[in-house]
Description:
Number of domains: 1
Helix content: 25-40%
Largest sheet: 8 strands, antiparallel
Radius of gyration: 19 Å
Order of helices and strands: EEHEHHEEEHEEEEH
Number of helices: 5
Strand content: 25-35%
Number of strands: 10
Amino acid sequence: FAGNDDTTVNSKSAPVLKSQEGFTFFDLGIDSDLTDNIRDELRDKLGSDAIERRNPLDLTINYKGFIQQYFKELDQLNKRLNFPPGERVEHNMIKLRYRYAQRKQVPFKYVELIFSNYTKKPLLFKIASKKEGAFIIDTIRTKHGEPKTINWEQEEGRSLYWEKNKSFLIISILKDRYGDPEYHTAIYFTPNIEALLSKEEQVARQREEEIKKKGKTAF
């Protein structure tokens, strides 16, 4: 699982993960807003999208227990997002999926972008790449410096990660069923996830108060 290989990628299309005030993907960062124009631009770059609303938000990656072991803050957020355990907990969010991005000559086989439907700001980005992912790692190293490394204990693989302003960029390197390397990137915009939870808790309290008021006026 080397960070460098003999893969060559068009430098004009590949280095889309970069650092400005934080982690970005195609210039979408923690303070970006999802607008109709942005969605059009994403379709131009990644192909057609599929949109979903009001879905569960699961922060887990790689294998069961990974974030619990290595990213306690994300694990605590995930527990809040999915409480009570075992139930389907939906959130007011927008999920965009791009399954055919490679047709646009970009080094991604799958892209998933999740935004808050309250603020339209990003919550979680997931990007899957084949061997081209090694080039992306080199690009991020250049911009962010050397990452911290996690060698998996339960599975064969490892993860590199960077942290900035409470947000995380994690690249996990594993092998597909044919033994070829795959690179799974996750960008967690932690402050925006916390803001989503706070807003939903506020909405829930307001709804509960409305129910109480209606109950009092019924008799």
